[in-house]
Write a structure and sequence with these properties.
Radius of gyration: 17 Å
Structural class: alpha+beta
Order of helices and strands: EEEEEEEEHEHHHHHHHHH
CATH superfamily of the largest domain: Jelly Rolls
Distance between the termini: 19 Å
Helix content: 40-55%
Number of helices: 10
Oligomer: single chain
Length: 242
C-alpha cells in the first residue's frame, strides 16, 4: 500500500514510503528513485532495474515495483537548475544509476527539503535557462488555462510562438505543451492534498473536466486521481532514510 508522505517544494515534489499499484507511465519531471534500506526495483521497456538509486529522465516510460520496504521518489522540474543538473547525468537511454555521493547525501538528510538543498550543493549546477524562457514559464504559471496562453507568453518575451516552443524543447528536453500539462497536474495534486473533490481539483488545475484530469494523471503518474488523492492526503510523522 501507499503508506508514506508527500512533500511539495517550490519546483519539486517528493514521496517517501512503500510503493503500491501503478501502471507504466512517463512524465516531464526528472525523477530520482532511491530504495530506503534495500534497493528499489523499476520496470522499463524490455528490462528491469534493481539498484540503490536510479535517475529517470523526462518521457522515459517506467513503473515502480511494489515491495515491502520503503522507497523515496523525488520529482524535479526540468526548467530548474537542479533539474538541468540531474538531466546532465542521464545516459543516452534517459536513465542513470545514482552515484555513491548522491546516495550518501540522501542518507544524511533529515527531510526532503534538506535533501534537495544538499543535492543542489553537491551537483555541478549547469548554466541557467534562457532568460526569455524563464520569464515565459513564469507567465505561463499564471496564465495557462485559456487558449492562446503560449502566444501571449511568447509575445511578452519578444519571441514567436514556434520559437518559444523550440527554445523550451531544446533547453528543458520536453515540449512546452508537456510542461504546461505537468504544471496543471502539480496544481491539481496540491488541490487534492488539501481535501478538494476530484471535480474541484480538475478545475483548480485548469483541466477541462474530471475525465481530462484522469487521462493525464494515468499517463504521467500511473494512477487514477482517486488513488492519487488517497496517497496525497496521507502524512507521516518521521523521515527515515535508512
Amino acid at each position: 500500500m501507499w503508506d508514506g508522505s508527500v512533500t511539495f517544494g517550490g519546483s519539486w515534489a517528493g514521496y517517501i514510503g512503500r510503493a503500491d499499484q501503478n501502471t507504466a507511465h512517463s512524465h516531464v519531471a526528472i525523477q530520482l528513485c532511491i530504495g530506503v534500506g534495500q534497493p528499489a526495483t523499476l520496470e522499463l521497456p524490455g528490462k528491469v532495474i534493481r539498484a540503490a538509486g536510479v535517475i529517470i529522465g523526462p518521457n522515459v516510460e517506467h513503473r515502480a515495483v511494489a515491495e515491502s520496504h520503503p522507497v523515496a521518489f523525488l520529482y524535479v522540474s526540468p526548467d530548474t537548475a537542479l533539474g538541468r543538473a540531474l538531466n546532465a547525468l542521464l545516459q543516452d537511454d534517459g536513465i542513470a544509476l545514482a552515484s555513491d555521493e548522491l546516495l550518501e547525501c540522501f542518507r544524511r538528510s533529515t527531510s526532503l527539503s534538506h535533501f534537495v538543498d544538499a543535492l543542489s550543493r553537491l551537483l555541478a549546477i549547469t548554466p541557467p535557462i534562457d532568460h526569455r524562457l524563464h520569464k515565459a514559464l513564469n507567465i505561463l504559471r499564471l496564465d495557462r488555462d485559456g487558449p492562446g496562453c503560449v502566444s501571449r507568453a511568447a509575445q511578452a518575451v519578444g519571441l514567436s510562438s514556434p520559437r518559444l516552443r523550440c527554445v523550451a524543447t531544446h533547453q528543458m528536453g520536453v515540449s512546452l505543451s508537456q510542461w504546461i500539462i505537468w504544471n496543471k497536474l502539480e496544481r491539481a495534486s496540491k488541490s487534492l492534498a488539501g481535501g478538494s473533490t476530484l471535480s474541484d481539483a480538475a478545475a483548480d488545475g485548469g483541466f477541462s473536466d474530471q475525465a481530462h484530469l484522469a487521462r493525464m494523471m494515468r499517463r504521467m503518474i500511473g494512477m487514477t486521481p482517486r488513488t492519487a488523492a488517497e496517497v496525497l492526503r496521507k502524512t507521516s510523522v518521521s523521515f527515515k532514510t535508512h
